[in-house]
Amino acid sequence: MKTPTVVRVLVIPAALLLFFLGAVSFSTYPAPAATPPTPSATPTSSPTPLPSPTPLPTPTPSPTPVPSPTPTPTPTYPPPPDEVEVPILMYHYVEELPPGADAIRRDLTVSPEAFEAQLQALAERGYHTISLTDLYLHLALGKPLPERPIVLTFDDGYRDAYTVVFPLLQKYGFTATFFVLATPAHYESPNYLTWAMMKEMADAGMEIQGHGRDHVDLRNRSYEFLVYQILGIKEAVEYHTGKPVRFFCYPSGLYDDDVIAVLRSAGYWGAVTTQYGRVHTRENLFTLQRVRIRGTDSLETFLAKVEGRY
Known about the structure:
Structural class: alpha/beta
Helix content: 25-40%
Mean pLDDT: 85
Number of strands: 12
Distance between the termini: 167 Å
Shape: globular
Strand content: 5-15%
Number of helices: 10
Order of helices and strands: HEEEHEHEHEHEHHEHEHEEEH
């Protein structure tokens, strides 16, 4: 019996057959993902990291050019004078005398009627109230002053400064400087200005300046005590009024070189005394003199003091 012949049929995959026939190119198929090599147990060297691609900057639209504002010109003044004659009037109480008032209280107290008569006389004679800041800028920079300038100052910050003086000043279009204490205001003493009153007055154009945290003799004191009194009142008034404090009034007019040194270091521009005088210079900004108005002054005496005839 014959052994049957075994016929081996070569089976060619269809894809390969098409390749051979030129119908399909392998380039049309994606390359198979490469199998990552298995790292050896102990790498001989670290692979060199490829540099990170530099991101392209995001385009920023060019802003529309804005014209530069025209700078405000700095005011130019004539050369400052070597000295200037300006009366700085000194008041304390402006109210009716209390019963049993002693000689000192009578001397320090001007009645509301007499005070209004004084303001009316100043207005009729063409006087213009200025601040101590105005006086300083005139002496330091030459900033002009109005005709017939005068400064009104009130010591100690008594309550009548708000109830009597403030309304009368507004009635006649005048301003004034009030030297105040911090401790009475802090405890809202009924005889003194409160912080709220000072704020209202400052907002209306009055100057609220320093007289000390307390009304005490500042001579022969420690540096720490002077800082407490001088810088303390400055910071307190500025905090409650939002206005700068640049001038100081020596309690009872008493001071020494240490007091002036602390005033300068605390940023004050000057200080007033109780000494009589009406001529001021740059050299005496921390010893400014004043003209005391007394309760016994008649209107004629008052005008003579203002005009330098008394």
